[in-house]
Amino acid sequence: MSHSVAAPAAARTDDADGSQTVLKKVLGASFIGNFVEWFDYASYGYFATVIAAAFFPDIAPGSALLATYAVFAISFVIRPLGGIIWGAIGDRVGRRTALSWSILIMSGATTVIALLPDYHQIGIAAPILLLLVRMVQGFSASGEYAGATSFIAEYAPTHRRGLYTSIVPASTAAGLLAGSLMSAALFWLLNEAQMQAYGWRLPFLLALPLGLVGLYIRLRLEDTPRFRELEQAHHLERTPIRELFGNHGRQIAIAFGATCLNAVGFYLILSYMPTYLSTEMGMGHTESFIAASLSLAVYIFLIFLMGQLSDRFGRKTALITASVLFILLTVPLFRMLDGAGFVTIVLIQIAFGALLTINDGTLPCFLSEIFPTRVRYSGFAFSFNAANALFGGTAPFVATWLIGATGSKLAPAWYLVGAAGLALIAMLLARETAGKPLAD
């Protein structure tokens, strides 16, 4: 007759405390690292009009802005390839290694942007160098979002995975908010000549110290328990991308479709909107950035609530709800922007941000749950970055082009409706993943 001996209560408490301590460190490292990445990446969008004048001074302002957004869009071309490379590193060598290198590369590239000579100094070489550095940024960013989410998902308890992974979009928005606030402050403090001379460079100079802090925190963590289990059992994939495309095509298609709304919505609502308000609606730079900052603050608050609700009601329910609401409400909300006062514009942006949180607070967890551990990083990174390359990075460019081609300020709204339609179709074909163990 065998007897089982219960662990002492003190030991069980210590284990729980230790697990909670590690989880807090994981969440903190993911937040700070992702914050730094997206503060660096988004600063380009917020200073688009100034960068346009610095690097494309000899063409009309509208065309210069279009050229600046073209550089923004082209830098996304490398992201699917980056997703494959970072995914291979994350699935073969480790999540921590991939995340540490990605933040180091992003910080270095962003610092280089701050030091780039402009068109008046070196001519056509200036926008070419800007494009090359932006492509390095795009390569780095392609490993961040997927890696940070996978890292948290593999540590988080099943019943709270949605809540904990929502810290990734929250930290992304916090990076945008910091960039927006800094932009508002600089446009308010500096005149046009000062902004052209050096003001736009200041946010990019912060990249290196912020990046080194994020790198230090990440290097102090162990890799995830699930990755270490595969590593110890010698079950790591030698070629994750071959396994991914060979056996997980359905998941890739669903993940790509579901990400379309996130890609277009994120870059139109959170990055492009200040430029839209200033160039199309006649709002001042400072006011447009303040409006964006207020909506971002509400977005960050709501994103955690949406992650928690997805734990309760399911990822599929939340993502379908987001798609339907965007299809129904996007065009009416855009119509209300025309001629609206400052308070009304802020309320409309908050409404857009709230709609976006239903998708963004749920999507990262969903994408980490539909792929098994051995190809989780690769599957998430490739599908997420492919959708962002086609629809996200091009969103400001397409929106600006559509307005010029159609003469309608509502053109970006219809583009967003189309993305919501694609996401809806994808989610109707998906299975529910909430409340289940991670796929293995």
UniProtKB/TrEMBL annotation:
Coiled coil region boundaries: none
Transmembrane segments: 41-60, 66-86, 98-116, 122-142, 163-190, 202-219, 252-273, 288-305, 317-334, 340-358, 379-404, 410-430
Principal subcellular localization: membrane
Zinc among keywords: no
Any Pfam family matching the protein: Sugar_tr
Keyword set, alphabetical order: Cell membrane, Membrane, Symport, Transmembrane, Transmembrane helix, Transport
Keyword Repressor: no
The organism's place on the tree of life at top rank: Bacteria
Xref: Gene3D superfamilies: MFS general substrate transporter like domains
Membrane topology of the entry: Multi-pass membrane protein
Compartment list: Cell membrane
Residues covered by the Major facilitator superfamily (MFS) profile domain: 26-435
Protein name (database record): MFS transporter
